[in-house]
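Example record for the data management plan.
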Amino acid sequence: ISSDDLSQIFDSHELPQRSNNDYCHGEIKQSSTNPILKSYKKMFHAHLKKRTANGAEAAAALLHEMEDKYASGENDYRPDIYMFNTVMNAWQQCELSNTDTSISPSKKAEDLLDYVCKKREEGVECLGPNDLTFSICLHSWCKSSRRDAPKHAENILRRKIESSKENCDIVVSSMDWNSAIAKWREDPTLGPDRARKLFIEMNQRYIDSRDERSAPNVVTVNTLLDVYAKSKGEKSAEEAEAILNEIIRSYKSGEGVIVPNIISFRSCMDAWIRRREPETPKRVYSLLKSMIEFSKSERRDDVAPDSDSFNFVLKACMLAPVMWHVPIKGDDHPIAIANDVFSTLRNQNEFNANATHTSYSYMFRIYKRHLDFTDARYSPLTRMLWKHCCHDGQVSRFSFESFRSSVSESEFWSCVGGKERYEKLGKATVASVTLDDLPAKWKRNVAPDRRQRLTD
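Corresponding structural encoding:
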């Protein structure tokens, strides 16, 4: 929520004047003719536009100063929940930019939430928190880098749930649930269990209420799977895959309406890739096949794998434990899987997926990691791979560096056009040759911003 958006709300909301007999429900009169009040509003906006912790602190102080004036009988100065929301949002906005570790913008926002909740309990209706009040505080904690931020975010979610029982205008939306679930990925130990329980609770509350505004969706599922992917749990990959399989089963049987998408499958792939175990390539490849099967059986072209999905399998092969000392037998060896996937990318396929500079980069590293350097096949394979990479115009910094680290010095010079050619450019060593020195046609199909990007 931008400050400008909330400022527009505030600008259009004239501060009301109360009756002497009623704090909130008295006769509302326009106060725009009060020059001092106008000055307060200008200062209020000026502080907020700073987009800093100092600005938010000054705006909050001004807000409480207006409260004091109102309490002393100056009726024009009564603040309302819109103004408090604006200050809370200012704290939220400086959460990512705040460099003062002694200040927690999210805690400041929560303090304001506590304050307006207390006022509401005291009977001050105009300061009762609304839907936006809770959402601002929740999303502020979701931006916080504090270790306890996930717990705070879930706590705000639960407070919003309780308030929604008393105020029908407060709605715990799918976005609120998704944000709280997503925040738990920052806790690799407790995250999966907390996120799973929130998902179960969210689903049960939807079943009970049938309020579509809080219905679990594919973003919810993907967020949960991502929490598992970032987890350090020994069985996190298996658990993520089990969740995905249950979503697929539920959808196919007609029990559920959530349709997994490409991100759903990739999140599970990522969970396995982070394990870096011998079985990782096989499990990730199996997920790719499941994606293809689901896309075809359900006629969901939007779930069909793209180049990045195939590259996930290559990445799994690249990061698997070293296997150069193991003979390439069967279909489970990383090189066998990688060759199968790369062949699909290089040839015409039903998915219109093509080999990218990342595909080539991974293949160079796969051969280097899993094929004995003294194997008679090593040199011909890497040279042929470089030839195809240049022919396809897929030479980026990533693929070039991967190639350079995979071949001997003599092979490098031979593959890039001869040492003499580069000596004329003042490049006498392999390390001195840069991407800019290579022919433009070798790089023609790589986006400019990606030519210099070195992917892990």
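Summary line stored alongside the record: The chain has a mean pLDDT of 88.
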